[in-house]
Amino acid sequence: MKKLRKIVADIQNLTDPDQLQSLLWQLICYSPKIPSRLHQQKLLDESEIIPLKVYDQYFSKSDLNVNCFKWGNGSVKILLCHGWGSKGSDFSEIISMLRTNENFEIWSFDAPGNGSSEGEISNLFLYAASIKQLFEHIGTTPEVMIGHSLGGMANALALQQIKSYPQLLISIAPLVNLKDNFIASMNSVNTANEAQTLFFEDFERLFDQKTEDFLLNKIYDFSDQLKHLLLYDTNDLVSPSSDIEGFLKENPEIRAAAYQDTSHSKLLTDHRVLQEIDLFIQQELSSGK
Question: Where does the AB hydrolase-1 domain start and stop, copy by copy (predicted)?
Fold first, then answer.
């Protein structure tokens, strides 16, 4: 968090406007690395660690080492994708719950620029590339995929790109509108509209894609291919419920559960959320539908 605070302070104290765009890229693409807590580290110590490589074509122009973690050797494979400024071990409560089932093989990873993996800055495409690299390593599409926040959007992007789908998809407070998220970050440091417009022009040139395309509604075009559970908080400040409910309106076949007294990050540890996930997986996998 110290580096992020410095980026914010540098933007707010900026006297040379020519430096602003470089700092905005850091503001948007730098993901704070928060150390694992004791119980999270214990969970990692009990995992099998598999390093994979993901090529970063946008920033470093190099292969990045991505640390992946595996628990169990069951026939049902489950992949978890964390959110921005997060790491694989932030799913610790969910992973511990899943480990009670000996039929499960559970995978998580630290996306580039997050947790223990390499990379100074990151982006949605590096998340999706990590997911696809794990698919290749595992040798199949996992039966269950779980994503939180940006990880929910990354799961959808990876599935859209490879056209291979799990039986079950679980999204926990997924980001729906990435551009609005960027705007909120820049507004928080009082970035002028002109500077924001320039940033988005540079962004679209780098990624060769319109920022308006970074909508979950556009990425998620395979609703008839799987069973999907979406869990969210109605007072979430990171992934607004209005965005999620708009997405659900366009995809009424998704099973959804809303909470009012948790938060964007605490959804990962809320006992009701864990019960909902456990019930969904057990019922849907056993039904064979």
Answer: 78-232
Residue 85 token pair: 């400024």
Q: Closest Cα partner for 129 from 152, 105, 107, 162?
A: 162
Mean pLDDT of the chain: 95
Within 163-223, residue ranges assigned H as helices are 178-187, 193-207, 216-219
107: closest CA among 161, 166, 48, 63? 48
Q: In the beta sheet, which residues pair with residue 255?
A: 229
Pairing relation of β-strands 62-71 and 76-81?
A: unpaired
Q: Which range has the worst mean pLDDT, 8-12, 143-147, 148-152?
A: 8-12
- Residue 55, beta-bridge partner list: 63
Overall pTM > 0.85: yes
Question: What CA–CA distance (Å, rounded) separates 278 from 97?
Answer: 8
Amino acid (one-letter) located at 4: L
Those residues with Cβ within 8 angstroms of residue 229's Cβ, 6 or more apart along the chain or in another chain: 168, 169, 170, 171, 254, 255, 256, 257, 276, 277, 280
C-alpha pair distances (Å), 102 with each of 50, 69, 72, 78, 98? 20, 17, 7, 12, 9
| Contact indicator for 149, 232 with CB cutoff of 8 Å | no
C-alpha span between 228 and 128 (Å, rounded): 19
The Cα–Cα gap between 143 and 78 comes to 6
> For residues 217 and 250, is the Cβ–Cβ distance under 8 A?
yes
- Give which of 264, 86, 88, 268 is closest to 184, Cα–Cα: 264
Residues 6+ apart with CB under 8 A from 198: 21
The predicted structure's pLDDT at residue 205: 96
